[in-house]
Amino acid sequence: MDSNVYRVYEDEIQALQEEIKLLTEKYEDIQQESTFFSEEEILKSKKSFQREMQGDSKGQECPSDLKVQLESLETDLSFLMKLTGFQFTSHSKKTLEKTGDRTVQKHRLSGSCYSLSFQLEFQLLEMQSKEKVSAVITDLSIIMESGEDSGVSKFVSSVEEHGNLITFFRSLSTYAEWHEHRRRTFLHFK
């Protein structure tokens, strides 16, 4: 009986150690993402925020300016969604590796283009030299409901092989738009 009690405790200890490890990794990711800003930039932002808050107490209408900017951004976003047909529903980013001149991040992105939904997962390798920053997409994985169209499956395989997201988004936008037109036309005749 004592060995069962010890086993339960050992399992609980192991579960807690795994949870600590996950929380430590999450904390390190947050710390790495916060290092993208220098202390000088953080102090400037803090001072700017404090000035805005003091301006609010003096009767200036900064919140209305922010409200106007927000409405303008929402209008622009709505226009872009209508123009391209893309609606992104989720995005997550995790920093896997960060050294002095090299950063590897894992991105997950899901959304839809007209009536076709998609999910992307890829790693972004950013390398910084003295003059420029270069980015390379690796391990691209695309999940898309292609239905009975084998051409879409071939296209997705080709894009995954070459890691070209621009081609994917451009082609998907055009294909999804015409797919939607065909769907509506066939519904009309049914």
UniProtKB/TrEMBL annotation:
<dbReference type="GO" id="GO:0005634">
    <property type="term" value="C:nucleus"/>
</dbReference>
<dbReference type="Pfam" id="PF13096">
    <property type="entry name" value="CENP-P"/>
</dbReference>
<keyword id="KW-0175">Coiled coil</keyword>
<dbReference type="GO" id="GO:0000775">
    <property type="term" value="C:chromosome, centromeric region"/>
</dbReference>
<feature type="coiled-coil region">
    <location>
        <begin position="6"/>
        <end position="33"/>
    </location>
</feature>
<dbReference type="GO" id="GO:0034080">
    <property type="term" value="P:CENP-A containing chromatin assembly"/>
</dbReference>
<protein>
    <submittedName>
        <fullName>CENPP protein</fullName>
    </submittedName>
</protein>
<dbReference type="InterPro" id="IPR027801">
    <property type="entry name" value="CENP-P"/>
</dbReference>
